[in-house]
Write a structure and sequence with these properties.
The longest helix has 30 residues. This protein has a five-stranded mixed beta sheet with strand order 4-3-7-9-8. The protein has a two-stranded antiparallel sheet with strand order 1-2. Strands 5-6 form a two-stranded antiparallel sheet. It is mainly α and 569 residues long. The protein is built from 21 helices and nine strands.
């Protein structure tokens, strides 16, 4: 059974609702329990490993929002993730582990939303499998409970897209939730501002169903969410949009040095890494769908008479349709030619036009749920375009693309299982059998992957231990340290452990200044740059993690592994 009618919000009786949706509730509960267990064990691993650089930044910002600032903060970061953490800080749970728990809870919340989102197009079993696949992609498990804002922002995005679709298909009052959740996603990770493209596209192709009154109320509600943030920015920076101004400002290889950390101009990087991101279960699904499509094409070719084939329902005879087709081809060429050779926004706009024209051209074919297919594909492409053109590549950028990838995986499996049927007692068992096999593979993979995450990140554990030991020693060495001018390569880490403002020193290499570099091989000229910067800024101490520096004005007074504490002579 398809899920066209399985989201009945008009039945006011809780008893009838439970009766009519018992299967959905069972599958959702099962999914929630499985994912919660996985999340629990992943968080335990991260608690043992401890936070990393960005996690400490979010923790420091949360202290600011809770009224317990340690002096250090980076308020240019999106504020919402830290704000949620600060609520627990206000309740007395002021611990680095809080960020892992919040990350895990928001992730499970997102998986529940993924199930509900898939239910709009698929049945209970298909939605269950989709939610489980999303929750167990290797790339997702690596960053789950990590204390970064990526998965939290994806969770808000999932619910925002879900509420927006319901606003068109069920009740326009869901706009009241859709736009605030879009704002939550944006304020959790600014990259989610790009969601405006798929959102506007979906509104455009469903323009005949818009309730403008509720749409405007939803937009106003989102600005009410944004308003206190803008007020906060004005108080801190004197400019309500200052933290937003740098978003996407650098997206081409021209403006970033090859020495910069994570520099990678390869525009096909995320496609090449896709098999790694989706894991064994994902590769198996792609293989099944590919084989199913090949078999389907072979059977269809054998049935074609006189080697003629027509796209049923596609009308290209009218002048208007021909113009659209020619324009579509021109835009494809323009998109392919410009991709990676100009700023990302050009490609985003071109793809937006392509997606809309594609929907207009294929509308006469009356393909079921085509508006959803276009929405999810544009959701994927808007982040794929940005992340591929942006020359700083990080594997976690794929997390923003994961939900639409899952959608098309389940769509492929669903269609293939409906075409190639194998019935037992008049029931097609292809998809249930595939679900059992894939679920077992997923559970086995998770049981082996989570321990390897602990092993692969053992360096973070050792680094945290060294930083903490160095901080504890330093507190005793200089009891007056909070009145000293301290710098570090890892300022948020040391600020957290020392409970004071430790300033960040940039990286100096080859007469250039960086935030991070690909390698730490420094010349004496580089060391002199470090030394001069510290002297100019009147640094009393420098907590260094970079080996090979020869500082003429500072002497090392203590070392804990890779952590060297320098004091001005």
């Amino acid at each position: 059974m398809r899920s066209d009618d399985n989201l009945d919000f008009n039945n006011s009786s809780p008893k009838n609702f439970l009766k009519n949706h018992v299967n959905s509730i069972i599958f959702l509960l099962l999914l929630t329990v499985i994912v919660s267990i996985i999340t629990y064990y992943r968080i335990l691993v991260q608690i043992e490993l401890g936070p990393v650089y960005d996690s400490f930044v979010f923790l420091a910002n949360a202290l600011v929002f809770s009224g317990h600032s340690i002096g250090y903060s980076d308020l240019l970061r999106p504020p919402f993730f830290s704000f949620i953490i600060s609520l627990l800080f206000r309740l007395g749970y002021t611990s680095a582990n809080t960020i892992f728990v919040v990350d895990g809870i928001l992730f499970v919340f997102g998986v529940i939303g993924m199930f509900m989102l898939l239910k709009i197009r698929f049945n209970d079993l298909e939605s269950f499998l989709g939610g489980l696949i999303y929750a167990t992609f290797p790339i997702v498990l690596i960053y789950l409970g990590f204390g970064f804002s990526d998965l939290a922002s994806v969770s808000f995005s999932i619910w925002a897209i879900y509420f927006m679709i319901l606003a068109f298909k069920k009740d326009s009052r869901f706009f009241y939730l859709a736009f605030p959740f879009f704002m939550f996603a944006f304020l959790t990770r600014y990259n989610n501002g790009l969601l405006i493209f798929p959102v506007f596209l979906y509104i455009l192709i469903n323009s005949d169903k818009i309730n403008f009154k509720n749409l405007i109320i939803g937009i106003i509600a989102s600005f009410l969410v944004l308003l206190p943030v803008l007020i906060f920015f004005y108080e801190k920076f004197g400019n309500i949009i200052y933290p937003l101004m740098s978003f996407g400002s650098t997206s081409t290889a021209v403006s970033i040095s090859t020495e910069t950390a994570s520099y990678n101009p390869n525009i096909f990087y995320f496609l090449q890494m896709l098999p790694v991101y989706i894991g064994l279960q994902g590769k198996l699904i792609v293989l099944i769908v590919a084989l199913g499509i090949v078999l389907c094409l072979i059977l269809r070719i054998l049935r074609i008479k006189d080697n003629k084939y027509s796209f049923e329902g596609l009308n290209l005879k009218s002048r208007n349709s021909k113009i659209k087709l020619v324009l579509f081809i021109i835009l494809i060429i323009a998109f392919l030619v410009s991709f990676g050779k100009t700023v990302y926004m050009v490609s985003e706009v071109l793809f937006f036009a392509l997606a809309y024209l594609f929907y207009e051209i294929t509308r006469s074919m009356k393909i079921k749920k085509m508006d959803l297919h276009v929405l999810f594909f544009s959701w994927f492409m808007v982040f794929f375009i940005f992340s591929s053109i942006f020359v700083i590549k990080d594997d976690r950028y794929f997390l923003l693309m994961a939900p639409p990838v899952v959608y098309f995986m389940i769509l492929g499996l669903s269609e293939i299982s409906n075409i190639h049927k194998f019935k037992i007692k008049n029931n097609n068992v292809i998809f249930p059998v595939l679900t059992i096999i894939l679920t077992l593979i997923i559970l086995f993979s998770n049981a082996t992957l989570i321990p390897t995450i602990r092993q692969a990140n053992n360096g973070d554990l050792i680094a945290n231990q060294q930083i903490e030991m160095a901080s504890q020693w330093f507190v005793n060495y200089d009891p007056n340290y909070k009145n000293q001018n301290i710098y570090s390569d890892l300022s948020p880490n040391f600020s957290w452990y020392l409970n004071t403002n430790v300033k960040q020193i940039p990286v100096f290499k080859n007469n250039q200044t960086f935030i991070g570099v690909n390698n730490d091989s420094f010349t004496q000229e580089d060391s002199n740059e470090f030394n001069d910067y510290l002297v100019t800024n009147n640094a009393d101490y420098y907590f260094c993690i970079r080996n090979g520096l020869n500082l003429t004005s500072y002497k090392p007074i203590k070392q804990f592994g890779n952590v060297i504490i320098y004091k001005r002579e």
